[in-house]
Amino acid sequence: MSLNKKIQNAPQATLRRRQAIEERHTAREAQRIANEKARELRPRDFPGGVHPPGNKDQSTGEPIGKIPLAEDLVLPLLQHSGASALPLVKLGDEVLKGQKIAEADGLVSCSVHAPSSGKVIAIEPCAVPHPSGLAEDCIVIRTNGEERWCELEPCEDFTLLSPVALLDKIRDCGIAGMGGAGFPTAVKLDPHGGREIDTLIINGTECEPYITADDMLMREQAEEIIDGITILSYILDMPERVLIGIEDNKPAAIAAMRAAVNGTRFDIVVIPTKYPSGGEKQLIQLLTGREVPNQGLPANVGIVCLNVGTARAVYRAVRFGEPLISRVTTVVGKALERQRNIEVPIGTPIRHILKHHGIHRGLMQKVIIGGPMMGYTIDDECAPVIKTTNCLLVPTSEELPPAPVAQACIRCGFCAEACPASLLPQQLYWYARADDQEKLQAYNLFDCIECGVCSYVCPSSIPLVQYYRAAKGAIRQADTEREKSDRARDRFEFRKLRLEKAEKEKEAKRVARRKVAELAREQQKQNLEAEGAKTDTGEADIVAAALARIKARQEDPKQLLARAERSAASAKSRVERLNSKLEAATQNQRNQLAAQLKAAELKLQEARHKLTLARRRADRDPAREPGDEETNAAVRAITKARAAAETRAGMRSAERLAADIEALRNRIRKAEVRLQKARDQNATNLEAFEAALDKLQKKLEDKMREQQSAQNGEP
After folding, report:
1. Whole-number pLDDT of residue 535
2. What Å distances lie between residue 416 and 99, 420, 464, CA to CA?
């Protein structure tokens, strides 16, 4: 090959080499990304755990079934974590299927809806599925079999709604977690203060023995579950990862879910069967490697974890507007003729469910709500299925033998090795027995998920979980009492401060009143001194003012005449009425009416006399000035009053007080004469005379006490 051809082919070879290098680089980058993704999706492990017998084949042999509707449905107002719901119905109300019958009370609470149409026959405490065995307030509905729905609000395209609107819809439909403690789903999806959510985990592990409700739900309703997960991702603003964790002992469910996630960005992560991999914190650690902090929430590490049943309930609430009124429950145990999963209305009594599965009373050992590890026994089969009831286990004594008598702890350490929360169960046990609440909290008692692993591996058969539950309850009660005590102390201190402030204000007002009284006494003293220095220059003014008052008091004679005529007519009418009554009265009433008639006749005479005087006065000139006689009388009265005032001003205090007492005695004598006259005439204003006399007597008593004090030298 010539040199020129080599030179021409060189750039082409270089280009090919560069392309090959870029292709290898791209392939290596793709392989690196795939490896990283594989490592991310490769399940990790959590400490401890056990492998109890699964016993799941008994209830997966047939599809999810149904049973006849119960006659009565019992709906507890507390089926979730948080506050009880508040009833919206009353006794005797007719309700429709899906109708809201109780409203959520606050943020951490859930509404309750009617699972069927019927009539409210009771609102009272009833047996509920709870470890305590205590009754709770419930609404009891007598079903009518019509299954008439209330009006629903479906939504074909959820993307037309905002995440906030979807949260309100979920909250209004009363959806709570269906795989754990029943925490309100709307609160989980709106973390309030947690960090940004980058991972959504859907829990399909169902690690508890015997329980297959989620397994069968994933087999038969995988499409609805995935649609619900799509809605949840939209509400959480499309988190980076959506992981669906399923244990490897559920091949049929894994296949159905993998087929359903085709075309989505959701990842199915198959994890090894190990109990309790279904615990929220354990599953998060398995799938992401993150650890939820002590007494923290998954939202604190950017994760939201929900159950597959909850995802399906969210889908039906958004798409069809259906509230949470039914759930899939496993009914299992060798004491039953038929073991399967059923979709049962919430509120169905457990006795009704067991009846339709052929319970053998002679074989059954007990009824357990949940599985053998975390479940609890109930004594009253009238208790209903609630939102968190995932299993009814009715074993025989051979299937689930009674626990042996607990023995002393041998300090083997098996419980610490098996604990999935990395706690020290042995130490917690000793502190729980000693009721050392401070030590219990120091050893993170509330991180215990009550999975029952420690009790399962304990060779001494010590019911450790029961000790921990009792200790948690005691601590919560102590915290509640402490809060009440703190509030009471705050109220007492506030009241004390308020009373002290009020007392200071009263003292300030008393001081101000004393100052005002002192100023008034000083002013009065100055006025008395000024009265003694008055001159005669004001006498003419006094007389002129008195004459002006007399003239002003004179009324128009025509007005006086009209008033007198009205009084006379009224008195005459009263006399006539009393005469009529007296004629028709009985003998017992005649004496009283006769006395009233006599008083009325006296009034009539007085009114006629006044009328005569008024007519005489009206005949005169109404605009005339006071006559000499009237003027002289007024002048004499004024002169007399002025002389009395001058005489009084020259008196000492004791003399002035004695004069007042004498004047009051004279007025009392005159008042007594007037009162006696009124009594003789049976006057209608007798009470006024008596009140005036009482007032004068009280004044006389006050003056006499004042005189006595002055004579004794008291201030």
Report:
1. 45
2. 49, 9, 12
